[in-house]
Amino acid sequence: MGRRHCSFYLNCAFLFMCSIGWISLPPVNAALKQYQFDIQVKNVSRLCHAKPIVTVNGMFPGPTIYAREGDRVQINVTNYAQYNMSIHWHGLKQYRNGWVDGPAYVTQCPIQTGQSYTYDFNVTGQRGTLWWHAHIFWLRATVYGAIVIMPEQGMAYPFPQPDFEFNLVLGEWWNDDVEEVVKQGNKLGLPPRMSDAHTINGKPGPLFPCSEKHTYAVEVEQGKKYLFRIINAALNDELFFAIAGHNMTVVEVDAVYTKPFSTDAILIAPGQTTNVLVHANKISSRYFMAARPFMDAPLPIDNKTATAILQYKGVPNNVLPSLPNLPAPNDTSFALSYNAKLRSLNSPQFPANVPLKVDRHLFYTIGLGMNPCPTCQNGTRLTASLNNITFIMPQIGLLQAHYFNLTGVFTTDFPDRPPTPFNYTGAPLTANLRTVRSTRPRLSRIAFNSTVELVLQDTNLLSVESHPFHLHGYNFFVVGTGIGNFDPKKDPAKYNLVDPPERNTIGVPTGGWTAIRFRADNPGVWFMHCHLELHTSWGLKTAFVVENGPGPDQTILPPPKDLPSC
Ligand SMILES: *[C@@H]1O[C@H](CO)[C@@H](O)[C@H](O)[C@H]1NC(C)=O
Ligand SMILES: *[C@@H]1O[C@H](CO)[C@@H](O)[C@H](O)[C@H]1NC(C)=O
Ligand SMILES: *[C@@H]1O[C@H](CO)[C@@H](O)[C@H](O)[C@H]1NC(C)=O
Ligand SMILES: *[C@@H]1O[C@H](CO)[C@@H](O)[C@H](O)[C@H]1NC(C)=O
Ligand SMILES: *[C@@H]1O[C@H](CO)[C@@H](O)[C@H](O)[C@H]1NC(C)=O
Ligand SMILES: *[C@@H]1O[C@H](CO)[C@@H](O)[C@H](O)[C@H]1NC(C)=O
Ligand SMILES: *[C@@H]1O[C@H](CO)[C@@H](O)[C@H](O)[C@H]1NC(C)=O
Ligand SMILES: *[C@@H]1O[C@H](CO)[C@@H](O)[C@H](O)[C@H]1NC(C)=O
Ligand SMILES: *[C@@H]1O[C@H](CO)[C@@H](O)[C@H](O)[C@H]1NC(C)=O
Ligand SMILES: *[C@@H]1O[C@H](CO)[C@@H](O)[C@H](O)[C@H]1NC(C)=O
Ligand SMILES: *[C@@H]1O[C@H](CO)[C@@H](O)[C@H](O)[C@H]1NC(C)=O
Ligand SMILES: *[C@@H]1O[C@H](CO)[C@@H](O)[C@H](O)[C@H]1NC(C)=O
């Protein structure tokens, strides 16, 4: 830590008290949890700026949803802001109930200004940490919060019971109106400018100028054990996270228990969650917790570091905390070896039901590209594609179109493999960067209860880069991953079909591939996209139409009465 940073911190510590607080769990007995979410623009002060941002109930981050496995949750979202809104409950499977999944124009029309919509769903067969966020434009920059699902009454965690729990929501902050920043980028056909800060629970910490009292802090007691529920809500950055002087034991990812392992840092992609146990058994002092991007592509490195403080009880606020040793921003080998340690718990109680037989093989290439744009600065616009298709958003919800048999909204001819095989991760491809922009969204139709293997292959079209992919409506098993081109003859032999990690978001490595498997037992229209908002907005997305099953309880539920219309 540089001298300048030290004095910076001391200024902050002497002039302002750090906020120290417990997050205590509310009683969780009731089977119906009801929340009111008022979408409001509030003047929130961060860094050097106080500026109006879109919030839920005026809070940043927004309120935590607490539920117990088996609960019914009703969240009435009322939109008082000038923007269209929709909220996604990231990682909740929403069995047969895509109407409440949230992505705008995929499962619903937006909640327009002055309107309300109640997301009504049951939390079934899931427990752990998930999160919610706006799923329209880039509004999730400020509209997000944690979801904590406690195990069923009388069920313990399959790891040592922590004494306390905290949520740590990692985010990204722009000093200007994010929607304006994005508009500016789109006008030029270039990426919008980088964020101004990373944050932990909405606060950047003292390594940023003007952060003043904006440091999140937790107080711990010597000898006690803590569960940290860590969420990456950043728009465009995979993050390393570490706590100075303390190792962490990873026990859960994306609301699925894992085989515990100890690590001095974690890697967490946008959309992912990670629960870690921390034993407060070190010298009583103050320690920084820090988050900084991982970026191993040949792109500019953004190394802005968000910090928060872990403070032992009784230690005065003027003790200078030490910084953790985060992996270098381009530390590929840490990233690969960290991900390789993740394994499903796969116990009799929490088995890993990995599909062993595959009904449908899909191979999707991830590409960046450049399409003509006469009004853009360079005459071109950056785009992104899957199998060379840049996804076009429709004017109405795809799920409505599917359910009500509306014709002309989408087609189901999304190709199972790229149009022309090439050396995907060979030398950078800078010619032929045009992608296909069809007039209607192209989706893939999947038979009910079939087993799907999807290989996501990064390419060197313009540049290799790591892409965190998120599938709605399902968890999947990450059965294999590798660097270079996927080899369908050799690589499947190396799959882990016993205890692979089960999750809803997975980072496809830079210049590599990832194979996932899932059973398509949830009928509906389910979005799949890169969780880097930049790439989603460039078209790196598609959706699966999963057909109804033959049984009465295997069909999409009727839409709720208050479902917004377009
Ligand atoms: C937000 O608050 C700041 C500081 O209190 C003030 O200077 C600014 O005018 C406010 N902005 C709006 C739009 O209310
Ligand atoms: C949702 O909240 C709005 C605004 O308070 C209210 O008008 C509406 O009746 C509520 N909806 C339900 C289903 O309670
Ligand atoms: C949730 O569970 C309740 C009680 O069993 C049931 O009435 C309701 O229809 C369920 N809702 C959904 C969306 O499945
Ligand atoms: C953390 O674990 C590593 C090995 O994984 C070990 O070398 C190191 O000493 C541990 N650090 C602490 C503070 O326990
Ligand atoms: C972070 O970026 C700054 C400014 O570009 C640079 O001076 C510093 O060396 C970088 N740190 C690392 C760890 O890359
Ligand atoms: C990572 O970044 C450092 C500092 O910028 C550089 O010296 C090193 O060569 C890079 N490592 C790799 C594998 O690119
Ligand atoms: C677009 O043009 C600007 C200068 O006008 C240049 O700096 C930039 O590299 C160009 N971008 C691309 C993607 O060609
Ligand atoms: C849509 O078409 C299917 C198959 O033809 C039919 O079973 C279903 O009732 C139709 N749905 C609506 C809402 O008309
Ligand atoms: C793909 O490109 C890489 C790097 O240019 C090269 O090493 C490799 O041999 C190529 N593979 C094939 C099958 O052409
Ligand atoms: C993608 O499609 C465009 C338009 O048809 C074509 O020009 C380009 O070569 C294709 N690229 C790849 C990688 O298939
Ligand atoms: C899906 O298929 C599996 C394997 O054939 C079967 O065990 C299961 O009952 C089926 N699920 C449904 C909902 O039909
Ligand atoms: C809000 O959504 C409606 C329905 O899709 C659309 O007609 C309207 O243009 C949208 N408004 C804004 C400001 O995007």
Automatic annotation (TrEMBL):
InterPro entries: Cu-oxidase-like_N, Cu-oxidase_2nd, Cu-oxidase_C, Cu-oxidase_fam, Cu_oxidase_CS, Cu_oxidase_Cu_BS, Cupredoxin, CuRO_1_LCC. Its EC number is 1.10.3.2. Its main location: secreted. One of its GO terms (molecular function) is copper ion binding. Pfam families: Cu-oxidase, Cu-oxidase_2, Cu-oxidase_3. Residues 1-30 form the signal peptide. Coiled coil: none annotated. Its cofactor is Cu cation. Residues 39-153, 166-314, 413-549 form the Plastocyanin-like domain. One of its GO terms (biological process) is lignin catabolic process. It is found in: Secreted, Extracellular space, Apoplast. NCBIfam families: laccase. PANTHER family: LACCASE-2, MULTI-COPPER OXIDASE. Lignin degradation and detoxification of lignin-derived products. This is Laccase. The gene is LOC113731272.
